[in-house]
Structure formats: structure tokens, C-alpha cells
């Protein structure tokens, strides 16, 4: 038995294992390349003006970072090779050198310069990509109110007088003002193809302005766990030609059942139903009443959030955060 | 009497029952072996009641290793679910169970693996490196360990009795409030962390006091090994950050038990306050973990490059800078919560600034290698693996620090891949390097080199296979913590690769277990002297095994690499001298009793057994009062006794 174990350990050499692992890496890499051929990667294939800018920012940051990473990799492997113990070339050996002011200044300095560049970019891009900032466009924006429920998404169109569940449709090339709130534990609203996610929180309205470049159908997600059915909170985001959108909205308003406060209270409780529902809107204050549910008892710190019209020009949540 | 505890608390799904049975069998096996070999007294006397930091350090590491296996079993279930079962109609792992498992995975890996192994290494190495005979408060150290153990027991008990949190490792409200999580899961999470966390705060105080007051004469701050500096930074963070965690968990407890409304979304409660507070602890926590890893590598690279550490002063400045800056970045964990552009940009820029001192450290290590004489032992391999993975994680970290990019990538698997890059590549590889490097100092034999290398390559390759697909998945729109997804999204192939990666990592762990077992078996062939790596610092200037009092002679220190210089001056440290009597702390089980009492408080509140909680509280306070009144806590080893121990230790007997 002991002989066998010793032989087994001697048989499994580093070389063999590394060889097998290398083979595995090659196979998996090839497999992944083939697998990804026909797959859509929304963040790298943006379909909206915000996601476009975010991709450029991602690429820029990566390239800037590589200015540090590549020298680190090269130096590590070059030094490791050149100064290896059993090198026959007898490279220089200076065991007592404990630093060099010039060199150290260099690597305090260079990353600092890179970070300054990146900071400037960060400052301006953060303001440019601020989800509260209205998008510049000649087209009149459309407002869509979003409510995170356990576990589905309710979309209310105050201008079209319709509402939908688990599907949001909007016209292309038109700024969309999403007003996002929740009647559930904190959730997050995200359409990766269009860019930027935002938390959906009870008693508060978060703003998110997006715009689709063209017609298309995208996935939408909740990215923040809000209970057992969290994974079911997928929705479809569909960008339509303007005329198609108007037709669709009219059709929904004429043909679908009505949504009033009582009906809302019937759809609000926990469910893992992922189907799409459409309604014509009867009570126009549903979104505000959902917000009010969490402010009924006075003394609330969120009392500035009662009406959605106040939010376009001001950063309520920001002032709240800064007050902390 | 029993609060809300009833037979319903026992698990009813097959996966959980399997876990409980497995755990129970392992426990019975250990108990059986200890009984069979009549080792209980030995265990009690030499480890459980010992106040020797070397013994406490080993216990920390044993617990951390067992918890690592538990955390890995958890992750195997998570990836199996996502790679195979997620697209099926029904899965053996329900959504509820899946959420318990990832919450447990995160909590266990951070609090009971990373923190455990960290405090284990500190206990083993720190007193030796500063040339001290002990820590400042030996009993407090024991209490810290046992509180850590009590938290560990609670979190594992939740598997068998009740349930665990389903709200993720940080349990954001309002999900974690009573309204949405009425069960015992969140309470288990709170009390496991609360009890272990108080232990951590006490450890922080203890080690700061140890570093500041117990250094060998002549060891000025700027002569301390960098590892000691890194622990000073880390423990300063502990002392400032952990009380925030304690307060946050305390307020959440009040919300859940006394119906207060600090974090509820109604009645003026503010969940955003919790998220700020938990990250005001949570971000420094990341640096609490990574700073010691930096310290470890700063010890290892000079040893295996056989050259002085490059840029000592730079390293110290970088540690101090990171320590301070780590308190100024917490908001980057929730850019998407709606703070304005000014606030987000500020915290984004502060986050990037931390990359500067971190980068300086990497360059200093690389230039320690420059014109050195490098031997590629396993600790050095872990260092190089660390640089490769950590810089990659640094790059994705800088990306996420840009709010504009974070708005896309936040809370996706991209983020998950990023922080695993930092914590596995940084903390875990650092811990592996440390364990392999310092192992012979405490056992008298090295770990088998070849098996270690095999484990290393499995870890590196497994790590890449497990996490590179997650970066891609994140960009494909995959949020974190999904127990199911639509197969038409085309994610499954990537999850399968990530699953293969986990299998390869598990192989790595398997080889590490084999490595330790084989090395113990072949310990005679692998035996080495007290200074096997040609060490530079004082921990190597001791015999192996190290006597309880560490050093018989307290010769003043004159240089940074004290032992290296002594060897260069041909000073024979094993030469007998005149010895004096040394006081060492007596063994005491008080640490166990304090932790047991604290456990009763936690268990009582979790199950609404108020009398039990009260009893535990009274016992805890009573024990603490008793401890303050205690006298006769030390015993004296006479000079003659020291002489005989030293003669034996140095082979002069």
C-alpha cells in the first residue's frame, strides 16, 4: 500500500499536470471562441446613446490601464528569467541595494499622472453620463414610470395612459425619462443594450434617461436581489418606430383591461409569474400613491419625493446623500 | 420556553439534510478519533486552553481551512446550479436554498476563512517578528479566538437548525427587515457576525498594543519588518471600522426585535443609511484583508530573491496611504443609488488614487527581484501568481471605479469576477504563500515542493477558467446571484466553463490536502533546521519547535534585517548564555466560557428565547468582571528550567 502511494505520487509530476492543464486551456479557449461566435454581448454591442458612451469609456480606461499592466507583466517575467538562481550567465547580483530614489519617484509619479488623466475623464464623463441629466434631442421625450414589485416590473405610461408588466416598449431615437421606484425590497433596473442601471427604492424616485439608436428587442434585468423570485425579474425592452409605438399604445388603451388602484393592489403581492400583461390606465396617480405608501406616517426623510414633476431639474437623492 | 424553536426548524430538503449528515459524520469522526487515541486532555491542555499565540494561531488556521472546505462546497453547488440545473424545469436546489448558499458562501469566505487565516498568521508570526515573548493581552487574544469560533459554530448550526440568510453577504434592507425576511436566517447572519466581529475588534486593539509596546529594544518603527507595518495598518482599520459593523448590526437587530425603524422603508426608516454604514465598514474590510497579504509578499520576495527589500520607506508610506484612503471610497459600492454626479465623481477619483500606492508596492517587489538571485520555491510562485491575477483585478477595479462604467457593470458577474480576482489572487494566494513559507518554522519540516507546484498550477488555471467567463457573462447582462435564467440568452456555455474552472480549483485544493498529508507522512525526509530559507527577520532566530516564551535572550535589535545581519556578523544565536526567569501566562479556559456565554446570547435572540439571551448576557458580564478581578495569572519558568529547555531546543542536551 505505502509503496503504491509513493509510486503514485512520483508518477504525478508537475510537468504532466501542467501539460494536461495547458491542453485543457487550449480546448476551452477554442470552444469559447466558437461558442461566442453567434452570441450577443450587449455591453460591447451598445444600442443606445448612453451605452455607446459607456463602451468608449470602457475601452479608454482599459487602454490607459494597460500602460501600467503591460510593463508590470514584462518586468516580472523578464526579471524572473534573467535573475533566476541557476542562470549560467551570472547576472549582476546586488544583495544590499535597498532602493533607488529616482526609480521610486518614477513609479510614484507615472501612475499618478495616469490617475490624473483618468480623474479628469472621470469627472467629465460622470457629469455627462449622470442618469438625471436630460438627453439633448430634437424629439420630445417620453416618460415611463417603472415600479419594481416582488417579482416583476410594472411600467406606467402617464402620457399614453397605458401600463404594462414585464415588457416595456418605447419609440426609437426618442429620449426616455424613466422614473423608477419600488414597492418591494431594493431592486435595480437595467437594460444593458441601452446602458446604465439604477436602484429602485420604496418611497423614492430615481431618474434614468436613455435613448435607443434604432429598432430592436433587448433584455432587461433586475440586478439587485429582492427575494426568492429575484431571478424571474427579466423583462423585454422593445424599441419601435415612432408610428408603430403610437399604434401599439393606442391599441393597448382601446383593447386591454383597465388598471386602477384596486387592480394594482391585486397585482402587487409576491408572484413568480413572468408573463406579460397590458392595461389601459384608469387611475393616473398610481405611481404617486405607490410612493405615498411609504410616507404616510409623517416625519419621513423622503418627503421631497411626492411628485414626479419636481425631479427633472434637481437631484433629490444627491442632496440626501450629501446630507449624510 | 423554546421561543420560536420547534421541530419545524429541522431541514426538510435533501440537499440540506445531506450537508447536515456530512457535517455530523465528520464531527463524530473527529470526536471518535480523539476519544480512541485518548487525546482529549492533550487537546485541552495544549490547545483549547492555551494562551500561547502560536497555539491560538494554529487553531485559527485549522478553523479557517475547515471553513474554506465548507465555502468551496457551497460554491460547487452554486456553479452546478448555474451550469446545469438553471435552465431545467426543476432543480434539487430551490431558489431559497440557492440564496442561502451564496449568502453563506460570501459570509463564510470573508469572515471565517479570510479573517481566520489572517489572524492565524498574525498570531503565529507577529510576536516573533517584533522579537517579543507574547502579545500584549494573552487572555484577550484567547477570547477573540473563541468568539470567532462561536460565530463559526452559529453560522454552521443554521444549516441544521433553522435557516440561513437569503439576503446576500451584506443583507441590505429592506430585504433584511422583518417585513421581507421574517425567518431566523438574517438573525443567524447578524449574530454570527456580531459575535465574531467583536472578537475581531478586540484582536485589533490587542495587536496594535502589541506592536506599539512589545517590540524588542532597538526596534524603532522604521526598523520593523514590513509585515508588521502592514498589520499595524490593518489593525488600525479594524479598530476604526469594526465598531461601525457592530453598530450597524445592532441597529438592524433593534429593527428586527424591538420594531424600531432605522432601516425599514416605512415610518421614516432609511435603508440607504444602512448601505452607507455597512460599506463604511465593508470597504476598509477589504484593505484589512489585503494589507497583511502585501506584508507577507514583502517578506517573501526578499527571501527568495536573496536581496534587501526595495524601497522600504516607500512601502511604509504606501501602507499608511492605503490605510487612510480606504476610509474615503465606500460610496463606490453604490454609485447607482442616485447620488449626484459630483459625489460619484469624487468617490470614483478617490478610489483610483488608491491604485497609486498599490502600484508602487508592485513595482518595489519587482525591483526587489531585479539583480537578485531568485529561486522559484512555492511561496515565490504564489507571489508571481498573485501579481498576475491582482494586476488584472486592479485593471477591472479601476474600470469599476469610473462611475460611468460602473453604471453598466455594477452588480453583474463582472463585479463578482473583479472582487474574486482581488480576494483569491491577493488574500488567498498571500495566505498560501505564507503557510508554505512559515510552515517549517512551526513543524520542523517543509511541505512537499512538487505537490505544492501541482496545486499552484491547478489554482491558477482553475482561477482563469472560473472567472474569465464571468467577466464575459457580466458584459452579456448576467446579474449576480441568479438561480435561473432564460436558456435563449446563450449564457449556459460560459457557466459550464466557469464550472469546469471550479472543478480545477477543487483539484488544486485536493492536491494541497495531499501535499500536507504526504509531507506529514514523509516528515523525516522533509525535515529541516530552524532557518531553512536563510531568513532575514527574528522569527527565524529561534529554535524549532519554538519554546513557549519564544526568545530566551532579549538582545537589542540594531537593524531592519536583524537576523540576516547577525548571520553576516557570524553571531551564533544558539550559543548558551546566562538565562533569567521568564513569566508566561497560565492556561485558562475563560476564553471558551466567555464565547459560550456570548453564543447563548446570540442563539437566544435568534430563536426569541429571551430567558436564554438574558442568561447568556449575565454570564458574559459576570465572566468579564471575574476576569478583571483575577490574580495569579502567570507562572514563572526558572532560569534553570529555561536553560534545560534551551539546551534541548538547540540540540545541546
Name a few traits of the molecule.
heterodimer; A: 324 residues; alpha+beta; Immunoglobulin-like; 7-stranded mixed sheet; 5-stranded mixed sheet; 8 helices; 40% helix; elongated; disordered C terminus; B: 653 residues; mainly alpha; Cytochrome C Oxidase, Chain A; 19 helices; 2 strands; globular
What's a quick, concise take on this entry?
The complex is a heterodimer of chains A (324) and B (653). Chain A has 324 residues and is α+β, with helices and mostly antiparallel strands.
Question: Topology, pairings included?
Answer:
The complex is a heterodimer of chains A (324) and B (653).
Chain A: H1 2-11, H2 14-36, H3 49-82, H4 101-128, E1 142-148, E2 153-157, E3 162-165, E4 167-171, E5 176-182, E6 187-190, E7 197-200, E8 206-210, E9 216-222, E10 235-240, H5 242-255, E11 258-259, H6 261-267, E12 277-281, H7 286-293, H8 316-322
Parallel strand pairs in A: 1-5, 4-10, 11-12
Antiparallel strand pairs in A: 1-2, 2-3, 3-12, 5-8, 6-7, 6-9, 9-10
Chain B: H1 14-36, H2 40-48, H3 53-85, H4 95-129, H5 138-160, H6 185-213, H7 226-257, H8 271-305, H9 312-325, H10 341-369, H11 378-401, H12 403-409, H13 413-443, H14 449-475, H15 492-521, H16 562-568, E1 582-585, H17 590-606, H18 610-629, E2 634-637, H19 639-649
Antiparallel strand pairs in B: 1-2
Helix pairs in contact in B: 3-4, 3-5, 3-15, 4-5, 4-6, 4-13, 5-6, 5-17, 6-7, 6-17, 7-8, 7-9, 8-10, 8-13, 9-10, 10-11, 11-13, 11-14, 13-14, 14-15, 17-18
